Amino acid sequence: MVESLQYRMLNTVTQRKSKYKPATINRHVALMKTVYNLAIREDMVLKNPCWKVSMLRENNKRDRLFSIEEFERLLKELPIHLVPVVSVAYYTGMRRMEILNLTWKNVNMQEGFIDLEPEYTKTSVARRIYFNDVLWEIFRKAGKVRSLKHDFVFTYRGKPLRDVKIGFKNSLKRAKIEDFCFHDLRHTFNTNLRKARVD
Questions:
Q1: Direct distance between the N- and C-terminal alpha carbons of the chain, in angstroms, rounded to an integer
Q2: What is the pLDDT of residues 101-121, one digit of tens each?
Q3: What's this model's pTM, rounded to 2 decimal places?
Q4: How many whole angstroms separate alpha carbon 152 and alpha carbon 100?
Q5: Which residues of 27-44 are buried (b: 16+ CB within 10 A; e: fewer)?
Q6: What whole-number percentage of the chain has pLDDT above 90?
Q7: All domains of the chain, ordered by start, with CATH?
Q8: Strand 107-108 relative to strand 113-116: parallel, antiparallel, unpaired?
């Protein structure tokens, strides 16, 4: 039954119009294994029906990169409040939630860097990110409209910006850019670093 579920999920189209990835299915199976192991511990069942089920091979790596021409085209189509967010992602490689959760206490305007604290990074490892000229200007402009009610850097109509998915997706359509997601900005940044011979 579990293997049948794996097969059905592999061939099921999600609400996002794409099929489930092997990694997502593996997380479901791992959860079931854990639940049954806890049930065995509590004497609720005798055995774990998932223990012989093999995990699917994961190959979720994407190779989609943003050309400078596509990036400039997208900037022209973005709503004004998303331009700095996308630019920061492109020039720093920061993840979407790292950017949206960024507060002014983590931005050092005097010396020109961002300090990401471990609790706000996916890997739980602190990172320091230095400004280039574009980032200096982005944070200088953002600093002129700082809110007195909160400390978040990126805002929309005075409130912390919570999501960018719809605006980003619609802007990609207007810019006629296909097969691209926000996280690909991070891949592009890392590739650009390697091209510049940065370890």
A1: 46
A2: 999 999 999 999 999 988 888
A3: 0.70
A4: 8
A5: eebeebbeebeeeeeeee
A6: 61
A7: 1-60 (no CATH), 68-195 (1.10.443.10)
A8: antiparallel
